[in-house]
Amino acid sequence: MRIEHHLATLLDLPGEGRGAPMPSLRLVQAPVFHGYSFSAWVEFYANPGIEALESSLATASIEVRGSEFEPPSNVGQAGQGGIAVGAIAPDRNNPEACWFWL
After folding, report:
1. Buried b (16+ CB within 10 A) or exposed e, 31-57
2. Residue 39: predicted pLDDT
3. How far apart, in Å, are the Cα atoms of 55 and each of 34, 39, 40, 67, 101?
4. What is the spatial distance between Cα 12 and Cα 40, in angstroms, rounded to a whole number?
5. 51-74 tens-digit pLDDT
6. Any residues with CB less than 8 A from the CB of 41 and at least 6 apart, and which?
7. Using an 8 Å Cβ cutoff, are 84 and 77 in contact?
8. What is the DSSP string of the chain?
9. Which band of pLDDT confidence, cut at 50, 70 and 90, is reported for residue 80?
10. pTM across the whole model
11. 13: phi > 0 → left, psi -120 to 50 → alpha, else beta; which?
């Protein structure tokens, strides 16, 4: 419940008057550092493309790592706050969906 509440708080989009929908997640807890890591699958009405997603997600509290950088990891995020998103990739079986590593 604590993780769900924390994620719901992070997904509350400031200034837009609405929050992002709560995704279905599979969380894995490893005995290394403290934090959350997960892979999320998102289906769009019309897929905006990787570049548009990266630029839309980049805010003061979300670090977006493009394909030229390593995806986020617990080691790479140690001592940092906020959210890191990377390895954004189109789903091979659904052209309207993408995978995110957070």
Report:
1. eeeeebbeeeebeeeebeeeeebbeee
2. 83
3. 27, 19, 18, 13, 16
4. 17
5. 999 998 888 888 888 877 877 776
6. 23, 91, 97, 98, 99, 100
7. yes
8. -HHHHHHHHHTEETTTTEEPPPPP------SSSS----EEEEE-SS---HHHHHHHH-BTTEEEE-TTSPPP-HHHHTT--SEEEEEEEE-SS-TTEEEEE-
9. confident
10. 0.62
11. beta
Tokens 């005995």 -> residue: 31
At 40, the amino acid letter reads A
Residue corresponding to tokens 């892979």: 39
Token readout for 2 is 């604590």
And the tokens for 4? 């769900």
